[in-house]
Amino acid sequence: MTIVQSDLVLPHVGGTRVAPSGATTVELVNPATGAAFAEVASSDAAQLDAAVDAAHAAQREWARLGPERRAALLWKWGELVRAESDDLAAADTLTMGKPLHETQREAPSIANRIRYWAGMADKINGRQLPIIPGHLSYTVREPLGVVGVIIPWNGPMGMFVGRTSVALACGNGVVAKPSETTPLSALRLAELTVEAGIPAGLVNVVTGDGSVGAMLAAHPRVEGLQFTGSVETGRKVATLAAPTFKQVVLELGGKAPNIVFADADLDAAARGTAWGVFSNTGQACVATSRLLVERSVADEVVERIVAIARGLKVGDPNDPTVQLGPLASERQHDRVCDYLKLAVAEHARAAVGGSPLPGPGYYVEPTVFVGVESQMRIAREEIFGPVLSVIPFDGEAEAVELANSVEFGLSANIWTSDVGRMLRLADSLDAGTIWGNTARLLHPGLPFGGFKDSGLGNASGEGALEGNTRLKRVSVLYGADLQGPGFGG
Ligand code: NAD
After folding, report:
1. I want to staple 455 with a disulfide (CB 3.0 to 4.6 A). Which of 362, 388, 450, 475 is the partner?
2. What are phi and psi for residue 323, nearest 5 degrees?
């Protein structure tokens, strides 16, 4: 596959690339150089309608195939994705600057994710509920119909596969809207569904900016919505979806507390924290961006993280030895640089980094701020860059209070060797995912969803089945000695 098939990137509707429909285009820019290399066509309302129609038609065919056959086709899709791992990795590195050493590890793992959901396709069951004698009551998990998938730019292929493969396993059709800056891998992944023998039209990818996402969120014939992105857009999407009562799952932002106690393996904690906040150049919803560290070991832990930050190789993401690439866009670079300036204005001090790096490309230094207080904006807001804020604490109670003091509740990390303390903290933290002595451990079989402003519902594990199906209850009277309902008798 050539990563960029033409200067104008086209949507994938009804099983094929289709002509541009909207009047506007969006420029694709390589963040490692700042150079534009292609444009993406924008889908208009009629093209979106065509995608929804195609998904509905193909979904009926998909339903008729039955779960075993669907599982086999999904498995085949996974095989094709694995075979094209290198190209898919190159596509995400080109559009968002994620270092090749990360995307090349990620691409085969997304194939595994498809195969996990292929394995689930014939295990999506209801239950029998023997509650009322003489009646057979049971539940069925039915597909929703067509699921809209709206995803951001910070993990294009993983997010597309994560949301789409479970929707398909549950028997749905999909219309996806990837980020306007990173659509290449999603488009190729959709083409691969057709090559795998999955009905053409089951997976559609419309393209364009947020206005196309808004049309998808509001579309009256889209029954489910899987949205991943910022809190601000999540609120808009939920509002757009409300009039048609779509089943909505929102995976939003985070400001993960990363709590290190003095009794922890400090080396493991420092390595895990640095990796958690610097990999993908900090552009992760689960970035370990708030280091809450017990005061007695704060200097030591910071020293270790600073040493790791100084040793990171920053540069061209296509160099397989590079660990920190550019930020994904000029807009993201401006945003992170604004926070670097804000940190100084808030009287935090950079223990390492703190500045943009000279271009071309959208690079910043890996940064650790000390002298941070919990009410500062850098300690509360999602920066989405390689920036760590360090806040010391004294004792468990203060650690919990600081951890829970932000609006987000996506994930939290705890580093301690005391099992009791680990479990107490896991109980007390307001976060949908708790990692103990580890970070960013994700698997399609494990739930993942946010509390508070970090979202609604679950996009992974058993929770994802709920988000992609509707529950039907059936009750049938069979008891010969029982009389059915009615007046009299
Ligand atoms: P964003 O909210 O700006 O955009 C996300 C997607 O929504 C894009 O495809 C965009 O085009 C679309 N969109 C924009 N406006 C829209 C509207 N009004 N209606 C419908 N769709 C619209 O987010 P982003 O900047 O692309 O991504 C970064 C954010 O995503 C961060 O906040 C990050 O934490 C979050 N994120 C969350 C998770 C998670 O699983 N919780 C994972 C990755 C990223």
Report:
1. 450
2. -105, -25
